[in-house]
């Protein structure tokens, strides 16, 4: 086969690989199996591309901590009381997270591809919102789902969950898409685009309110408020106005949010008890943890709250404690480096990207991960496989944007010396030697 045909087939394989990624991201809110199939299809096209053009692999800023996290996760299986379950769970779930992360990293090259990814995510998010409004309109009753303490909140008989398994997971998903939309909105100049994004954001705020997920609501508010305080103070007043209107129109939401400071319900009590038990797990197994995915099996032995074998708890309702319990301290630290490093680099570099759209996207992705990081203090929404795949795809977008050629050029420019408002170019070795020949004397 001549080189021209090989190049054409390699290019076509790369194109198909990217469109497989787009379909995967679109399907994540609706079908885990469908997303998995298209993800595998994307890697099939990647292998075809390698066959025609040779091996090419992009490295990222979290490769090392991610490798440590994966190794520790598999080693933790040694401590699991159900080793086969933990091993299956580890390679099945971690495998998907790695595949979607590195497929996105290998795919994304141009700004046009980023635009298509955001569009795909946006269309699926709109469908999620519409289905959420449909649930609210038909009046789905979730009082019997044990998602709420009905004695503390008797008016809260319905919590919207749309295409996700429960309201808290939907709220975690909305946290990320709202943050991405917010970042793009901040840097968008076109009135039509700002109007569309603004309407989407308001609809997402309403559905987020219908989830009554306290941690997620407070997380996104805190993230946007922090951005407003430190970067753009004029958004504070609109934020306060929107919150005031929502609280006024929905008294159940007002009671739910203020209960964080005034009421101790069974949900809060259970979380405190779970955290106490989880800390004991970490202290007993600090190195490798209790085993990946083994919290469900180990918790009854640490049940200090209800003390019954009938209790089925699948996670600690705290992302950091849960990861520490299942993978040990090293596993937790490596995960924090992946998450915190991505947030830090996104928020540090977004202003250096060449276009407003890329700046807004990187800002939004950084804020999205920040919201998940805050929400992780009171919940573990990444326990959901589809949401975790979306989470790692957001980190992949950050990694791809940080490899932008213009950004790398801007970083090199930062090595120049700055004096006042002017920038002095770095001197070459010849110029330095030439300047040494001058004998500058003070007068």
- Through-space gap between termini: 76 Å
Mean pLDDT: 86
Helicity range: 55-70%
Count the strands?
2
Q: What is the SS-derived class? A: mainly alpha
Task: Tell me the fraction of residues in β-strands, as a range.
Answer: under 5%
User: What general form does the structure show?
Assistant: globular
Arrangement of strands in the largest sheet: 1-2
Q: What are the low-pLDDT stretches, counting only 5+ consecutive residues below 50? A: 417-428, 436-443
Question: Element order, helices and strands?
Answer: HHHHHHHHHHHHHHHHEEH
Number of helices: 17
Radius of gyration: 24 Å
Main sheet characteristics: 2 strands, antiparallel
Structure description:
It contains 17 helices and two strands. By secondary structure, the protein is mostly helical. The protein is globular, with a radius of gyration of 24 Å.
Short description:
By secondary structure, the protein is mainly α.
Topology (SSEs and partners):
Layout: H1 3-27, H2 32-53, H3 63-75, H4 83-107, H5 111-138, H6 167-186, H7 191-211, H8 214-230, H9 236-249, H10 251-262, H11 266-284, H12 295-298, H13 319-349, H14 356-375, H15 385-402, H16 405-413, E1 417-419, E2 422-424, H17 429-436
Antiparallel strand pairs: 1-2
Helix pairs in contact: 1-2, 1-4, 1-5, 2-4, 3-13, 4-15, 5-7, 6-7, 6-8, 6-14, 8-14, 9-10, 11-13, 13-14, 13-15, 14-15
Give short descriptive properties of this protein.
single chain; 443 residues; mainly alpha; 2 strands; 69% helix
């Amino acid at each position: 086969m001549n080189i021209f045909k090989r190049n054409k087939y390699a290019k076509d394989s790369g194109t198909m690989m990217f469109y497989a990624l787009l379909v995967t991201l679109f399907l994540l809110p609706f079908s885990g199996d469908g997303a998995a199939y298209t993800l595998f299809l994307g890697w099939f096209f990647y292998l075809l591309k390698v066959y025609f053009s040779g091996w090419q692999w992009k490295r990222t800023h979290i490769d090392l901590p991610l490798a440590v996290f994966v190794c520790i996760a598999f080693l933790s299986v040694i401590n699991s009381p159900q080793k086969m379950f933990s091993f299956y769970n580890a390679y099945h779930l971690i495998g998907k997270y790695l595949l979607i992360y590195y497929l996105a990293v290998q795919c994304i090259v141009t700004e046009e591809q980023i635009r298509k990814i955001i569009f795909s995510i946006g269309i699926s998010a709109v469908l999620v919102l519409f289905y959420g409004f449909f649930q609210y309109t038909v009046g789905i009753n979730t009082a019997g789902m044990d998602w709420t303490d009905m004695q503390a909140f008797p008016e809260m008989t319905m919590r919207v969950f749309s295409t996700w398994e429960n309201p808290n997971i939907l709220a975690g998903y909305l946290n990320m898409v709202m943050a991405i939309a917010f970042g793009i909105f901040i840097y968008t100049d076109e009135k039509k685009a700002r109007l569309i994004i603004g309407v989407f954001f308001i609809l997402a705020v309403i559905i987020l309110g219908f989830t009554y997920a306290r941690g997620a609501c407070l997380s996104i508010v805190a993230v946007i408020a922090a951005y407003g305080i430190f970067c753009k103070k004029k958004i504070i007043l609109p934020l306060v106005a929107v919150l005031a209107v929502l609280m006024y129109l929905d008294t159940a939401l007002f009671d739910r949010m203020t209960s964080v400071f005034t009421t101790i319900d069974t949900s809060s009590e259970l979380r405190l008890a779970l955290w106490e038990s989880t800390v004991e797990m970490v202290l007993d197994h600090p190195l490798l943890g209790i085993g990946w995915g083994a919290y469900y099996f180990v918790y009854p032995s640490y049940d200090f709250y209800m003390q019954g074998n009938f209790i089925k708890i699948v996670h600690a309702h705290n992302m950091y404690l849960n990861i520490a319990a299942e993978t040990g301290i090293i596993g937790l630290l490596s995960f924090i480096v992946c998450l915190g490093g991505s947030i830090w680099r996104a928020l540090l570099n977004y202003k250096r990207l060449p276009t407003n759209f890329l700046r807004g996207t990187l800002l939004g992705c950084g804020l999205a991960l920040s919201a998940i990081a805050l929400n992780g203090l009171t919940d573990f929404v990444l326990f959901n496989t589809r949401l975790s795949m979306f989470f790692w795809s957001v980190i992949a977008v950050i990694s791809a944007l940080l490899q932008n050629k213009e950004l790398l050029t801007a970083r090199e420019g930062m090595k120049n010396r700055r004096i006042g408002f002017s920038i002095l170019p770095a001197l070459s070795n010849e110029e330095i030697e030439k300047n040494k020949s001058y004998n500058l004397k003070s007068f």
